[in-house]
Design brief:
Blueprint: H1 3-13, H2 28-35, E1 41-44, E2 50-53, H3 55-60, H4 74-80, H5 82-88, H6 92-107, H7 114-126, H8 128-134, E3 144-151, E4 155-165, E5 173-179
Antiparallel strand pairs: 1-2, 1-5, 3-4, 4-5
Amino acid sequence: MDEAEKDHLRVLARGPRRRPFVREQVPEAIRHLIAGLERPAYVTGRRLDLLAWNDAAAELFTDFGRLPDEDRNVLRYLLLDPQARRLFGPGWPEEARRVVARFRTAHDLWPADPSFVGLAAGLRRDCPEFAAWWTQHPILTSGNGRKTLHHPEQGVRTFSYATFQANDHPALQLSLYTPL
């Protein structure tokens, strides 16, 4: 097992001491921070719900504000939106598997919570790839790397990305994209 898998096993071994999942709220200070960034940035919670994003992220990915709250989720966007598959192009399967592994890591901490169970069940039903990857039980914490996107108007663009955890709100993660 790698370090992320070992850490995950240690957390699971401590037992179920979790309260029911409640969708996170983004403090106004963090909202102002990402709104002021010129580079694409967004904030996600434990379930990978998209909680806040800036105009640059909306231009690069999609206007998440047009979606109902329950659909503002990185997994639902990436796995179910045909526009996302086109945007990620040939790199879509790798990116999708990476995000599924991040979700699995959080899901295992709330295995019986209706919010997590419902999201996973819907994705298993609506995305055959998710159903296959889910049975592999992938584990991955946040990270950084590169993504090549095939934007319909901006063309092919490569970004480095990094995720940051908020000190005062550890469930929140800021993802920041820098063009290369």
